[in-house]
Design brief:
- 2 copies of one chain form a homodimer.
- Chain A has 2 domains: 4-198 and 371-456, Zn peptidases (Aminopeptidase, 3-Layer(aba) Sandwich); 201-255 and 301-368, Alpha-Beta Plaits.
- The first copy, chain A, is built from 14 helices and 18 strands.
- The longest helix of chain A has 22 residues, at 121-142.
- The first copy, chain A, is elongated and about 85 Å long.
- In chain A, strands 1, 2, 3, 6, 7, 8, 15, 16 and 17 form a 9-stranded mixed β-sheet that branches. Chain A has a 4-stranded antiparallel β-sheet with strand order 11-13-9-14, with helices on one face.
- Helix content of chain A is 36%, strand content 22%.
- Chain A has helices at 4-15, 17-28, 40-56, 121-142, 164-170, 218-221, 228-238, 260-267, 273-280, 293-298, 339-353, 378-391, 405-414, 439-456; strands at 60-64, 71-75, 84-90, 110-112, 115-117, 148-154, 179-182, 194-199, 201-210, 216-217, 302-311, 320-321, 324-333, 359-368, 371-372, 396-400, 417-422, 436-438.
- In chain A, a hairpin with a 2-residue loop joins strand 4 (110-112) and strand 5 (115-117).
- The two termini of chain A are 20 Å apart.
- The first copy, chain A, has 460 residues and is an alpha+beta fold.
- Chains A and B meet through strand 9, strand 10, helix 6, helix 7 and helix 10 of A and strand 9, strand 10, helix 6, helix 7 and helix 10 of B.
Chain lengths: 460, 460
C-alpha cells in the first residue's frame, strides 16, 4: 500500500525519533497554562517556540494577536490541483493541580514505560506536534508537500476558545480548506485507532418555578397551595416516558436516523458493556428502547436533569412547602435536530404542563446542533488508509456523545469536513495528574499524518 | 345563660383587671428563654414565680425537676361527682431575636393600643395565665372550684418538650383527668373565637437515590446510564396524580371522611379565599379535587416535597449526569390513617417505581397519626358555651393542618379529650418581634375560663 516517496518520508521520521521526542519535551517544559494570568509569559514562550519551529521548516508563519492569547498560523505553499488541509490544535494546557498527585513534576517531561509524562503531553502538544513533525519529514526528504497545509494553533482551547470563532469568521478566506484535521481526542481502545465522524449537540436550560411568595408551613398550607417542588417533579417527569422517549412535540421529527451501516460498525466495536457497567458500579443500564448502549450515547438524543434544588436540604427535617424550586436540564441532540425549534416546542409544552398557582421562568443557556460528517466518505477512507499505515490497525468509525463546539464552527464557517483523528488513549489522564502520551502513539501518529498528506492529495 | 355564682366570679375578675394585668407583666418581665442556657436562672425564676402564685391561691403545688427545665404542677382538691380538668401550658419563651425590630424591649412589657407587647405575651404566658386567674377568681369569691383542676406548666415547649412525654407516662395516675385544656393557639379571626377539634398527622421521609459511582459527563454518558435526578422526578411525580390524589396503594382506605356537619361548619366560616391567595401572591390554589381550601388544609391528606437536591446548583451550566439525588417529602395524615401501614405500602410502591441502575435508601424520620376529638361532643359544647359567655361570640369549630405532638400524647397517655381553646389572634407575632396579646382577649379568656369550670362540672 505504501509508495516509494512515502517510504522515504517515513524512513526519515524513523531516523529522527529521538530528536522528535526531544522537541516534544522542549515544548512540554513550557508551562503554558492559559487559565492563570501568572503564566502569560509562558503562553507567549510556547507560541514563540512554535513560530520558530514553523519558520525553521520554511513555512510562512505569523503570530496573530487576539484580545486573549495569540494564535500561531503557518502555511505551506499552494499545490495546484490538490486540496487544502487545515490542521487545528492548541499549545495551551490545563492547570496541573493537584500537584502532589504527580509522580514526576508536570513541566519536567519524564519517560516511564514508554510514555512521556507531562501536562499537555496528549492534550494537545504531543498530538498536535505529530502533524508538525510529519510536515518536517516531508519537507526534509521531498522539499515539498503533496497538498497545501495550513496550521492554526491557538492558545485558548482550555479556557473556551473565546476568540477563535471571531477569528475564523474574519479570516474565512485565508483559512479556506477542504478538510480540517484535529488530533485532540483518543483512540477507541488500545490497538483500536478511531475516526470520530459525528458529535451530539446540546440544548441546555434552567427552569425556575415560583409558588407562594415565601416558604410556608407544610402542615398549615399543604394540600391547598401548589408546591413548586411537586410541580417541578411533575414537569421533569413528563418530559420523557418510561421507554426513554422524549415527549416534546416534534422532538424526533428531523432526527437523522443511524443507518444500518453505522449500527453494524458500532456492533463490531470491542465494547465491553459489562466492564462499562461495572466501572460505574450500576446494576443495569437503561435508555431509549430499541437501541444499544453505544447507539444511545452517540447517535440518539437524551435528556438529563443536570441539577435540581428547592426547599430544605439540611440534616433532619423541616416541614416546609418551599416558595421556589429549580432545575437545570439538557437535551443532547443528534444531527437533523434544530435546537431553536426544540426550544419553541419545549416552551409550549411547559406552558401546558405548568399547574395553576406556579410561575415559570425558562432560561436557555447553551445550544449547539449535532454534527455528522459523511460516514465513510472518500476523505474518511483516505484517513482510514493513512491510520492503518501509521498504526498497523485499520481505524473504526465512531461518534462522540458530547459536543466539541469548535468542530461545529469549523464545519459552519469553513464548510469543510472535519477529521477527528485521536492518537491518545482513554487512560492518558488529560486534565488530571500524571497526564501522559505513549511515545509509540506519538511516532505512529507522525507516520499516519505523513501518510494522510499523500492520501488526501488524491481526494477530489 | 349565666348563674348567680358565676356572676360573682366574673365580677371579681372585672374588679381585678389592673391587678391581673400587673401580674401578667411581672411574669413577662422574666426572660425565661428555654433555648439559651445563659437564661437558666431566669427559667427557674419563672417557675418559682408560678409556684409562689399557685401557693398563694391555696393550691397544692410542686416544682418537679426533669433532666431539663422543671415542670410546675399544681392541683385543687378533688370534687366528688365532678370531672377533672388538666390545664397544660408553658412558661418558657422563644428567643427574642432580632432585637432591633422590637418597638419596645421584649422583656419590658408595654401596653399600646390595648395590646400588651412582650416576648411570651400570647405564647404562652398570657394565655396560660387566664386559667390561673379564673381559678383565682373562683377561689376568691366561692372558696372552692366546681371541679378538680390540675395545672401542668412546663418549661421546654419551645425546645421540643423533650422530657414531657416521659413525665406524662410515669405520672399518668397523678395526672388522670377527663379533659385537657390548652390555650396556646389562636382564634379563627378577630371576633371569631374557635375550638380546634382536630389535627393532621405526619409521615416524613428522605429518599436518597444513587446511580453511577461518580458524577458523569452528560454528553459522554447521557441516554445510556440511568440518571438519579431523572429517576427522582419520576418517582415523586408518581406519588400523586393530577387530581391531587396520593397514589400509594391503600392510602385512603382508612381515612375518616369529613362529615356533612363538619363541611357545613367549615363553609360557614368567614374565610376569605381571595385574601388568602393574594397574601401568598399566587394566581390560583390547587389541591385534591372535590374539596374546598379549608377542607384540604384541615381534613384531607396531602403530599409535599419539602426539599430536593442533586447535581449542579451553581451559576451557569455544568453538563453533569449526577451520581446522586435526594428529596425530603412528607404526607400530612388525617385521623384513621396508620403511618406505619402507609410506610410499608410506600416502600413497596417505591421498589416498583425504582428504575434499573438506581439504588434507593428511604429514611423515615418522623411520624404521628392525625387526631380528631368528637365534633360537637358534650365537652366541646360546654366549652363553646363558656367561650360565648367570655367573648360574646359563639366559637366556631375548626381543625388545624399541622401537628401538635403533645396533643396526641395527652390523648394517648391520659385518654382524655383535649380542648384547644385559642385566645390569641393570627397577627400576635408569636415567635417574631413585637409579640403581643390583646388585653381584651386576656380578660375575655379569663371570663371564658371561669365559665368553663362551671360548665365542665356538669358534663358527665
Amino acid at each position: 500500500m505504501t509508495s516509494p516517496i512515502l517510504d522515504k518520508v517515513l524512513g526519515f521520521a524513523e531516523q529522527q525519533r529521538e530528536q522528535f521526542e526531544a522537541d516534544l519535551a522542549e515544548l512540554l517544559r513550557i508551562p503554558s497554562i492559559s487559565a492563570d494570568s501568572k503564566f502569560q509569559g509562558d503562553i507567549r514562550r510556547a507560541a514563540d517556540w512554535l513560530v520558530g519551529h514553523f519558520g525553521d521548516l520554511g513555512l510562512q508563519v505569523e503570530l496573530i494577536e487576539t484580545a486573549g492569547h495569540p494564535i500561531v498560523y503557518a502555511e505551506s505553499p499552494p499545490v495546484p490541483g490538490a486540496p487544502v488541509a487545515l490542521v487545528y490544535g492548541h499549545y495551551d494546557v490545563q492547570p496541573p493541580d493537584p500537584l502532589d498527585l504527580w509522580i514526576s513534576p508536570p513541566f519536567e517531561p519524564t519517560v516511564r514505560d514508554g510514555n512521556m509524562y507531562a501536562r499537555g503531553a496528549t492534550d494537545d502538544k504531543g498530538q498536535m506536534l505529530t502533524h508538525v513533525k510529519s510536515v518536517q519529514a516531508w519537507l526534509a526528504t521531498e522539499k515539498r508537500l503533496p497538498l497545501q497545509i495550513k496550521f492554526l494553533i491557538e492558545g485558548e482551547e482550555e479556557v473556551g476558545s473565546e476568540h477563535l470563532e471571531g477569528f475564523l469568521k474574519e479570516n474565512a478566506e485565508k483559512l479556506a480548506c477542504d478538510c480540517v484535521v484535529v488530533s485532540d481526542t483518543s483512540q477507541f481502545a488500545r490497538g483500536v485507532p478511531a475516526i470520530t465522524y459525528g458529535l451530539r449537540g446540546i440544548a441546555y436550560y434552567e427552569i425556575r418555578l415560583t409558588g407562594p411568595n415565601r416558604d410556608l408551613h407544610s402542615g398549615v398550607f399543604g394540600g391547598a397551595v401548589t408546591n413548586p417542588a411537586n410541580a417541578l417533579s411533575k414537569i421533569l417527569a413528563a418530559l420523557i416516558d418510561d421507554k426513554g422517549r422524549i415527549q416534546v412535540p416534534g422532538f424526533y421529527d428531523e432526527v437523522i436516523p443511524l443507518t444500518e451501516a453505522e449500527r453494524a460498525e458500532f456492533r463490531s466495536l470491542p465494547f465491553d458493556e459489562v466492564a462499562f457497567r461495572k466501572d460505574l458500579e450500576v446494576e443495569a443500564l437503561t435508555g431509549e428502547e430499541g437501541f444499544s448502549t453505544l447507539e444511545r450515547r452517540w447517535g440518539r438524543p437524551s435528556l438529563d436533569v443536570n441539577g435540581i434544588w428547592g426547599g430544605y436540604q439540611g440534616e433532619g427535617e423541616k416541614t416546609v412547602l418551599p416558595g421556589k424550586a429549580a432545575a437545570k436540564f439538557s437535551f443532547r441532540l443528534v444531527p437533523g435536530q434544530d435546537p431553536e425549534k426544540i426550544t419553541t416546542n419545549l416552551r409550549a409544552m411547559l406552558d401546558r404542563l405548568l399547574p395553576p398557582g406556579i410561575k415559570m421562568e425558562l432560561v436557555e443557556s447553551h445550544r449547539a446542533p449535532g454534527i455528522v460528517f459523511p460516514f465513510g466518505s472518500e476523505t474518511m477512507q483516505a484517513a482510514a488508509d493513512a491510520i492503518e499505515q501509521g498504526f498497523g490497525h485499520r481505524p473504526v468509525f465512531i461518534r462522540e456523545g458530547g459536543s466539541i463546539p469548535i468542530v461545529s464552527t469549523f464545519a459552519e464557517v469553513l464548510r469543510a469536513e472535519v477529521l477527528l483523528l485521536g492518537w491518545g488513549q482513554n487512560d492518558d489522564n488529560l486534565h488530571s495528574p500524571n497526564e501522559k502520551f505513549s511515545l509509540a502513539d506519538f511516532h505512529h501518529g507522525i507516520a499516519a499524518s505523513a501518510a494522510l498528506w499523500e492520501r488526501l492529495a488524491t481526494v477530489q
